[in-house]
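This is your field. Pick holes in the following sequence-structure pair:
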Amino acid sequence: MPNLIESHLALLPESTGRATATLQPRLFHYTTLQGFLGIVGSKMMWATNIHYLNDSEEFVYGLGYLKTEAETRAKDASAGHRAVLLRVASLVDYFKQGYVYTASFAEDDDLLGQWRGYGVGGGVCLGFLVRELQKIAERSGFRLIKCIYEQSQKAALAKEFIDHSLTAIDATTALDNERVEELANQIVTRYQQLACAFKDPSFREECEWRIISKFVPVDHESVKVRGTATMLVPYFEVDLDLGQDDRGRTNIGIDTLIAGPSLQKERILQAASIAAKHLTIEASRPSEIPYRSL
């Protein structure tokens, strides 16, 4: 993979967060108390349909970069490349409506902004070992991708992605319609995952990462629908179960647990430890942020 793309698919180089002293990269998932109980009880994580997130327009806008780049490059491309590029450009509008699922993670384990969103009155932050999270993601057809905030990087990624994709296509050989369709679909499907990681620059301080699916059919067995007060939301059940250790505890990729700012955070932490006693969680602590900050 080219360097710019690699930078958003690479492992974190050092330990993140303050939950443990061991130098293993971690990413942190913030959730409500009910969300925490659902995760540890079912050993599943819910990845939300991209169109039901408040930043879904960034995804749609991001795919537009690919369409623009493909149309521009097609003007001077060889016949074989031109056919693929034009088909890529025509497929983008279809893929904008495609069902892709994502779940979010932060590099920091005690972020006030995240607690405000998920932990008013009490929430939980779960620390995932990156190596385990990658296993979980890949098993379900997801990729772990670092979010992309800078507008200049988004355009550069589209250009680099096209460059990389075209190197695998022989420009001197004529392609039949079936092969053109296959190649174009592969390009847009792969780029669609990157576009799901596009976020507005105003959120860059979050340093967010996401696990992101490929295109998922609406009748996939792992797709379910949940209800909120005002909306029905499709989600994908991501299986977290990585097996048991020699003590009979289940590994779901999580080894740290932080109870969010709350008047009852010590009590919540005690109860959370009971709920997660069957898991390979090695460290837990309360947030260091005062409850009044919320």
Observations:
- Residues 3-293 form one domain.
- Confidence is low (pLDDT under 50) at residues 10-22.
- The longest helix spans residues 56-74.
- The chain has one domain: 3-293.
